[in-house]
Design a protein that fits this description.
With 412 residues, the chain is mainly α. The chain has 4 domains: 60 residues, 434 Repressor (Amino-terminal Domain); 115 residues, no CATH class; 130 residues, Serine Threonine Protein Phosphatase 5, Tetratricopeptide repeat (Alpha Horseshoe), CATH 1.25.40; 78 residues, Serine Threonine Protein Phosphatase 5, Tetratricopeptide repeat. It has 23 helices and no strands.
Length: 412
């Protein structure tokens, strides 16, 4: 399959495979036939919520429409897919791990390595992270299943964190089956860790996967039940800072969900409550339980939800309003984790493209690449934005052409 196929090309194939006319598919997703034709021709760019709606209507996974997993020279150069077969085997043999020739390294050493993996995950550095995972998971599994005393729950705790990294890697690289298997392993390890907040974290990740597949009602029930249970085990809202971070993350996920359902009031309500939770936690950005929560991530989600609902004008206006300098726009602080910052710049690039600011869109793509190159290279929205920029420019600059080649497009 050509690397230069767009979402529109794949959508047209999916529609014809299901023997749907343009009018029939447009009716299923509540858009006009002319709009669908523009999507298929590449003249318009689909929002994440519309991609999910088209995915459900055609009974193809969203990753099929976006063309994941991507295989090409950039992927071969990074070697990001090379570890996938080994991770599949390890996920399958989770309760009967491979034999190891020497005893596992001490748990504190493995915990430190998981810290390193977690930092790489947060900064979306998937290429260096991947090869670290198989040996760490294998050794932690031997301790978790055969250890004694406090070592067992601690090993399961760190094993859940390592499985979470597998889930992120598989999801970002476009391997949904492996991502879902890793989620089940997170849940298994979290249950054995004896740590309630790790169990909430596993539920949060499952709800996120539901959301990505367009299972909105299931995701909503999951997130609301998690919040209710969190309230039950932390009576009178005497939440620890860790619990506040988890609760805040649940609220931000709910805000995204309501935006996907085109419910501005619901999204704003959850974002407002998230601001209240952040104030209770001292208005500090935190990484408790690897949840990126605080004022910065709330702002990132405010912009994301507005863009997701198609209100790009308000999103771009807010960026200018928040900027301390006239004529500039707000961006996440340099201390923000790479995955979050790059997500923000990718969103803003899409919004600027929709507003006709092609130069601004390209600048934000470059900012995303600088912050988190792996994440940017493999993000479906980046591919669609780059494709549109190349198509709109009869004589693309050398810089844009080089960016397109880096992102997996042939530009000759």
């Amino acid at each position: 399959m050509s690397e230069n196929l767009t979402l529109g090309d794949r959508l047209r194939v999916a529609r014809r495979t299901r023997k749907l006319s343009v009018a029939q598919l447009a009716q299923k997703v509540a858009i006009s036939p002319s709009y669908l034709q523009k999507l298929e021709s590449g003249a318009r760019k689909a929002s994440p919520s519309l991609i999910l709606a088209l995915s459900k209507a055609t009974h193809f996974g969203p990753e099929v429409l976006t063309g994941q997993p991507y295989y090409g020279e950039p992927e071969a150069e990074d070697g990001v897919h090379a570890v996938i077969p080994e991770l599949r085997r390890i996920m399958l043999c989770y309760d009967t791990p491979d034999d190891i020739e020497v005893a596992p390294r001490p748990l504190p050493v493995l915990a430190s390595e998981v810290d390193q993996v977690a930092a790489l995950r947060r900064d979306a550095r998937y290429a260096p992270m991947g090869p670290l995972l198989p040996p760490i998971i294998t050794e932690l599994t031997h301790i978790a299943l055969g250890g004694r005393g406090d070592d067992r729950p601690q090993a399961f705790f760190h094993l859940a964190r390592a499985y979470r990294a597998v889930n992120s890697l598989a999801h970002k690289m476009g391997h949904p089956d492996l991502s879902n298997t890793a989620l089940e392993r997170v849940r298994w390890a979290a249950q054995h860790s004896g740590d309630p907040l790790m169990q909430f974290t596993s539920g949060y990740l499952v709800a996120g996967a539901m959301l990505r597949q367009g299972a909105y009602s299931s995701a909503r029930r999951k997130l609301l039940s998690l919040r209710e249970e969190l309230e039950r085990i932390q009576p009178e809202r005497s939440f620890t800072n860790d619990a506040l971070a988890v609760d805040g993350a649940l609220l931000l996920k709910l805000a995204v969900l309501e935006a996907r359902e085109n419910d501005p009031e619901g999204a704003i309500s959850h974002l407002t409550e998230a601001e209240d939770v952040a104030r209770m936690a001292g208005n500090r950005d935190s990484l408790a339980y690897e949840m990126s929560f605080g004022p910065t991530n709330i702002r990132i989600h405010q912009i994301h939800t507005l863009i997701d609902m198609g209100d790009t004008e308000q999103a771009l206006a807010l960026l200018s309003e928040w900027s301390p300098a006239s004529g500039r726009e707000w961006s996440p602080p340099a201390t923000t984790v790479g995955e979050r910052s790059s997500h923000h710049f990718i969103d803003v690039a899409s919004a600027k493209l929709g507003a006709g600011d092609r130069a601004g869109a390209f600048e934000d793509l470059k900012r995303a690449r600088k912050v988190a190159p792996n994440h940017t290279r493999f993000h479906p929205s980046v591919r669609e934005t780059v494709s549109a920029l190349l198509r709109m420019d009869a004589y693309p600059s050398n810089e844009l052409s080089a960016f397109g080649s880096w992102a997996g497009f042939t530009t000759t």
